[in-house]
Specification:
Structural class: alpha+beta
Helix content: 40-55%
Protein name: J domain-containing protein
GO molecular function: protein transmembrane transporter activity; RNA binding
Radius of gyration: 39 Å
Main location: endoplasmic reticulum
CATH superfamily of the largest domain: C2 domain
Number of domains: 5
Pfam families: DnaJ (PF00226), Sec63 (PF02889)
InterPro entries: C2_domain_sf, DnaJ_domain, Ig_E-set, J_dom_sf, Sec63-dom
Distance between the termini: 102 Å
CATH topology of the largest domain: Immunoglobulin-like
Largest sheet: 6 strands, mixed
């Protein structure tokens, strides 16, 4: 048996195979993902797009912001095409390789049929050797060697035996392992160049690239915000527990992303020395005399002035301050999300008694209010109707008359077509059509809340100290479903059908009108439009002791079909679980009637209750699995009409639970970024330690539109927890723990309705 040997690729065939495979592995996915394609927009969506001058100008700005996009696409195409050409060349090169002893057949080499006589073999060898001999003009040394080996394999007895046994006239060869690199790499004269290339790649280029990436990445947080900015947010939010809106805007403008020393994309111009002071004189209440660091630095004052000018929709010099405004505004949404996260972490630290002061709910809500203000380029106290195209402050007088006083977008959408067209009479037909497109595509959210205690025996009864799970179901539809009429084009077709004279078309039109009127009559006003009723002062006292502050539980979000249960419907006789089984929730009379049932039915109910516990636990585990699967959240929902925002924006939402009376946040705000049609999330918090009736609020806040926020009150009737059995193991508390508990009893996070009445 032959030995083994390692050798470099002398002929280059193995190296070409390696390069061919490596290039194919790169080219196939690169062509699929990076080949430039033109996005084909849906004609329906393109027809629904607003064509107002501000939107057209925004599209032009977005296209101009990528001047090298066509050149970049050209280079990508050339690189991919060059790679495929090289791949084809390598494939052709590999196909031309001739291996000497692969499929060695001496009869085929000599051009003879199997079983030829010795005379025929000698005659054929002599004839071909005269042609292939190296001394001849037509000679080929390689072919002559193969011809000689074929002749020996058929004439020499030992060579014939080796060929029959090993497939090689020379006998068994050594097992060779080829290295897919050419042999010139280890040649002595090329050693300096090879070592230099190794040093350049592995000792200089690779460490430099990894180090540059590392030192850049450690400067940013998960939201791609500078850590220096996050640290500044923590400092100011802790310093100002109750932060007003303008203070939050001032802190936002002081972000390190707007400082040239931290961000190389910031441009400092000589013209700023004249244009920025002139802009400051036009803006009142800017707070430029604030001496706090870094709020008093020039970059912070400039960014603050640009944000105030953006919210006031002022015109700026197009080549200088306008470019700076676009950059500052485009970075604000991510910064606001980071600011909200910072306030939320401070609240969690305050609950953990690591910081003395607890930020109020107004602080985090004012931070959230900044997002729709920045996206729409509008102050919060301005009319939400200014978010529509062509509507200015001079036109707001048309929305107020003796009969109707329109203040919100929802009220405008609920009007009949004639009334709405009468109010918008200052617009022509084309402008009115754009307004209806924008208004019809705005979000209309169906907001439902269901409260339960999952890991308890009775999931509908909240006991003191239990973990309460609030399931929030969101369903998004367009506001066009609230329209009480048809559009102008549909009206024209209806008039044509009526003029054409009755018949089937006339009946269809009447039926369509009747259906739309029925939809209008059955429409229910959403929660945020309902008038709040004054609470009765004659409520019974249910709790006289003060409550213990409760730590908020982390937010868990899952996507499942919407839930149709409502927390306010507590007097239903029966309620079905997810498995289709029924549980009784009747009054005392109903319970008396059920007591007359047989013992067998009671046993069945008890066994069904045990099965329900197991099923609830299984559902709880499934929700946890879904939450883990959905950690990589999608950030694609619906485009936002925002002509004053320099980039395309997707509509997102914040959802959280708070206590308005004590001004505290109970759950971390869940950032909903994938609300396309329906979304379900779960918010968890700890119930108060003392029994009583508590009023909490589940809030839904938009980060893209002003006036789209919703709030639904939740009545939490906390019952006294069951007594612990005597044989149940108890935890031994140290003196320090009991002291902390005694101190915590003096503070109150929740406020019952009875305590408010006593005050």
């Amino acid at each position: 048996m032959g030995g083994q040997k390692f050798e470099y690729d002398e002929s280059g065939s193995t190296f070409f195979y390696f390069v061919l495979s490596f290039l194919a592995l790169i080219l196939v996915p690169a062509t699929f993902y990076y080949w430039p394609r033109k996005r084909k927009e849906d004609p329906v969506k393109q027809a629904e797009r607003c064509q107002c001058p501000n939107c057209i100008k925004k599209q032009q700005i977005i296209e101009q912001s990528q001047p090298y996009k066509s050149l970049k696409n050209l280079f990508i195409k050339l690189a991919i095409i060059s790679g495929w050409v090289l791949l084809g060349f390598l494939a052709y090169k590999v196909s031309q390789f001739d291996y000497e002893m692969s499929n060695f057949d001496p009869y085929d080499i000599l051009g003879l049929p199997p079983g030829a006589t010795q005379a025929e073999i000698k005659r054929s060898y002599r004839k071909q050797s005269l042609i292939l001999h190296p001394d001849k003009e037509t000679g080929d040394e390689k072919a002559f060697m193969r011809l000689t080996k074929a002749y020996q394999a058929l004439t020499d007895e030992e060579a014939r035996r080796n060929w029959e046994k090993y497939g090689n006239p020379d006998g068994p060869g050594a097992m060779s392992f080829g290295i897919a690199l050419p042999s010139w790499i280890v040649e002595k004269e090329n050693s300096v160049w090879v070592l230099g290339l190794y040093a350049l790649v592995f000792m200089i280029a690779l460490p430099t690239a990894v180090g540059t990436w590392w030192y850049r990445s450690i400067r940013y947080s998960g939201e791609q915000v500078l850590l220096d900015t996050t640290q500044m947010y923590f400092y100011f939010c802790h310093k100002t527990p109750s932060m007003p809106l303008k203070r939050a805007l001032m802190i936002l403008a002081a972000s390190c992303e707007f400082d040239r020393r931290h961000n190389s994309e910031i441009i400092e111009r000589i013209t700023d020395n004249e244009e920025v002071p002139a802009l400051l004189r036009e803006l009142p209440n800017l707070g430029e005399k604030n001496k706090e660091q870094p709020l008093c630095r020039p970059y912070s004052i400039k960014a603050r002035a640009l944000l105030h000018a953006h919210l006031s929709r002022m015109r700026l010099p197009p080549d200088t301050l306008e470019c700076d405004r676009r950059y500052v505004v485009s970075r604000c949404p991510d910064l606001i999300v980071e600011m909200v996260n910072c306030v939320n972490q401070l609240i969690a630290l305050a609950y953990a008694r690591r910081i003395p002061r607890l930020p109020t709910i107004e602080t985090i809500e004012n931070c959230m209010k900044l997002s729709p203000m920045i996206v729409q380029g509008l102050w919060e106290y301005k009319s939400p109707l200014l978010q529509l195209p062509y509507i200015t402050e001079d036109h707001l007088k048309y929305f107020t008359n003796r009969k109707k006083h329109i203040k919100s977008l929802l009220q405008l959408a609920q009007l009949s077509g004639e009334d709405r067209r009468q109010i918008l009479r200052f617009l022509n037909d084309k402008q009115y059509e754009d307004v209806m497109k924008v208004l019809g595509n705005m979000p209309y959210i169906h907001f439902q809340v269901n409260t339960e205690v999952i890991d308890d025996e009775n999931s509908t009864v909240v006991t003191a100290g239990a973990i309460v799970t609030v399931t929030v179901s969101l369903r998004r539809t367009n506001m066009k479903e609230l329209f009480g009429d048809t559009t102008l084009k549909e009206k024209e077709t209806i008039k044509e059908n009526e003029e054409g004279g009755g018949g089937e078309n006339g009946e269809k039109v009447e039926n369509d009108k009747n259906e739309k009127n029925d939809k209008k009559d059955t429409f229910k006003r959403p929660v945020w439009m309902k008038q709040t009723r004054k609470q009765s002062k004659k409520s019974k006292k249910t709790a006289t002791n003060k409550q213990q502050p409760v730590k908020p539980a982390p937010v868990n979000t899952t996507v499942t079909p919407p839930v149709t249960n409502d927390t306010k419907k507590t007097k239903e006789p029966k309620k079905k679980d997810d498995d289709g089984e029924e549980s009784d929730f009747g009054s005392s009379d109903e319970s008396g009637s059920h007591s007359s049932c047989s013992e067998d039915e009671s046993r069945d109910k008890s066994s069904a209750a045990e099965d329900d516990d197991d099923d609830q636990w299984e559902r709880f585990q499934k929700r946890i699995l879904k939450r883990e699967r959905l950690e990589g959240r999608s950030k694609s929902s619906h485009p936002v009409h925002c002509p004053y925002f320099p980039q395309e924006k997707q509509e997102y939402w914040w959802c959280y639970i708070c206590d308005r009376k004590s001004r505290t946040l109970l759950t971390a705000p869940a950032h909903v970024t994938a609300l396309t049609e329906a979304h379900e999330l779960q918010l968890r918090f700890t119930a108060p330690r003392w029994p009583g009736l508590y009023t909490l609020a589940c809030c839904l806040r938009s980060d893209s539109y002003i006036g789209m926020d919703q709030q639904q009150d939740m009545k939490l009737d906390v019952k006294e927890a069951a007594a612990v059995p005597a044989d149940h193991p108890q935890w031994e508390l140290s003196d320090s723990d009991t002291d902390n508990n005694d101190q915590g009893d003096n503070e109150s996070e929740f406020t019952t309705d009875d305590e408010v009445e006593d005050e």
